[in-house]
Amino acid sequence: MEYVYAALLLHKAGGKLTAKAMEDVLTAAGSTPDKGRVKALLAALKDVDIDEALKSAAVMPVAAAPAAAGAAVKAEAKKEVVEEEKEEEFTAGLGSLFG
């Protein structure tokens, strides 16, 4: 993943995507660059419009986020219902003692 991040950083900074530039960014980040992986990524990105790819990719995570929040709310509501039922059972048992 750090190879993709290095490419995105170079692109955002306006730098040219070259093997040397990628290796320099990876080294500066504390990683040991693999020349084969650098070349493979550069070959894969050769005909890709990075700005367009970022625009289309940015839409997906935003749409997925609310589903997780809704599940958490449902789980909390279910927990409250179970706790209320336990409390009702407990108080019903106490009422029979003084009956």
Characterise the protein shown here.
The chain folds into two domains: 57 residues, Orthogonal Bundle (Arc Repressor Mutant, subunit A), CATH 1.10.10; 38 residues. With 99 residues, the chain is mostly helical. It is elongated and about 70 Å long. The mean pLDDT is 78. The protein contains five helices and no strands. Helix 1 crosses helix 2.
Mean pLDDT: 78
Stretches where pLDDT is under 50 for at least 5 consecutive residues are: none
Output the CATH topology of the largest domain: Arc Repressor Mutant, subunit A
The CATH architecture of the largest domain comes to Orthogonal Bundle
Helix run count? 5
What's the SSE blueprint?
Elements: H1 2-13, H2 19-28, H3 35-45, H4 50-57, H5 59-97
Summarize the structure.
This protein is mainly α. The protein has helices at 2-13, 19-28, 35-45, 50-57, 59-97. The longest helix is centred in the C-terminal third of the chain and has 39 residues, at 59-97.
List keywords for this structure.
Arc Repressor Mutant, subunit A; elongated; 5 helices; 2 domains; 99 residues; 81% helix; mainly alpha
